[in-house]
Protein: Transmembrane protein
Organism: Elysia marginata
Amino acid sequence: MYKTPRKMHPYLFVWICLLTCCGVVVVVVVVVVVVVVVVVVSVVVVVVVIVVVMSIWDYPVSPRDQKF
């Protein structure tokens, strides 16, 4: 996208490319991990809330699950 200065060493340019690629990979991995963690936490929270509400209301999920 931009012209490489002639003074710049070729290996330096390669290292910059490698670091940029590694940075992109790291960012993608971090984003994926964060999304997975958020989804798991939200699912756990929803399940816990449902269980707590069910236990407070003492509302059976189905006749089979009725304890009384």
